[in-house]
Amino acid sequence: MTEFTDEELALDPNFAARFDSDDRRPPCQLYLISPPAIDAGFVDSLAAAFDGGDVAAFQLRLKGVGDDAIAQAAAPLQKLCAERDVAFIINDSMSLAKRLGADGVHLGQGDGDPREARKLLGPSVQIGVTCHDSRHLAMEAGEAGADYVAFGAFYPTTTKETIHRPDPSILGWWTALFELPCVAIGGITPGNAAPLVKAGADFLAVSGAVWGHSDGPQAGVAAFRAVLAQE
Ligand SMILES: Cc1ncc(COP(=O)(O)OP(=O)(O)O)c(N)n1
Ligand SMILES: Cc1ncsc1CCOP(=O)(O)O
Ligand SMILES: [Mg+2]
User: Fold this and answer.
1) β strands within the chain, DSSP E
2) Among 31, 150, 163, 192, fewest CB within 10 Å belongs to which?
3) Domain range holding 181?
4) Which CATH number do you get for residue 198?
């Protein structure tokens, strides 16, 4: 991608986009986040979710659970992801991602250095970084070799306590300047996702709207089809 000076970028945030105007980004895709706690039957819920429509990635995000317990829970889920061609991403821990041979790891700002993760995991493992509502953090993550940056929480959510509330325009700013994919997260539902897709999100990361859907996770994923196909 074309490199620009800070001055050029400050003058016109779409400066780079003019030069890369025939670069087409793939359509926005779904990135499923697990509930914070699961039971042994969850593999069936995950299979149902995958039956609902295309899912690009699944993140195992179990909070307050030790690595051994996560590793035990992960085995059938990772196998299912491999069978369905869905990237299997581990949250928080690069060492656990390495131990499990996961397809990727998601690192928050306090979860470790993406450069260290790259050294540990190698070139083909996907590394994602939480960037809240910060252009600065996103550019830092890109510099550090992340494979995607995640902005959020765009909407109120009960899945996680959140402080930052970006405007959807941060997605447009990012995609105009950088090829690196961006993920939108936080309280996303089929009803409020359209502005994020329109603004340029490459992925919608969703938990509650799928697992909490009144007709089950298959219907939860299917409900996103229309908004993802709007481009
Ligand atoms: C895709 C994606 N984006 C953001 C997060 C949040 O990560 P983090 O800030 O480390 O918070 P926890 O998820 O660890 O509570 C994520 N997990 N995935
Ligand atoms: C993990 C995380 N990081 C920011 S918001 C959020 C929760 C996403 O879950 P939901 O889709 O239920 O809001
Ligand atoms: Mg984290």
Assistant:
1) 29-33, 57-60, 87-91, 104-107, 126-130, 148-152, 182-185, 203-206
2) 163
3) 10-18+25-228
4) 3.20.20.70
Residue 72 covered by a domain: yes
188 C-alpha to ligand 2 centroid (Å):
8
Atom of ligand 2 nearest to the CA of 205: 11
Atom 8 of ligand 1, nearest CA residue: 108
ipTM for this model: 0.99
Ligand nearest to C-alpha 108: 1
| Cα-trace Rg, the chain | 17
| Residue 5 within any structural domain of the chain | no
Per-residue pLDDT of 160-198, as tens digits, reads 999 999 999 999 999 999 999 999 999 999 999 999 999
Please give the number of the atom of ligand 2 that sits closest to the Cα of 206.
11
| Atom 5, ligand 1: residue with shortest CA distance | 130
130 is in an annotated binding site: yes
Q: Is 59 contained in some domain?
A: yes
Q: Is residue 189 part of a domain?
A: yes
Helices (H) and strands (E) in the chain, counts: 12, 8
What domain count does the chain have? 1
Q: What is the pLDDT of residues 65-121, one digit of tens each?
A: 999 999 999 999 999 999 999 999 999 999 999 999 999 999 999 999 999 999 999
Residue whose CA is at the smallest distance from ligand 2 atom 13: 187
Is 158 known as a binding-site position? Answer: yes
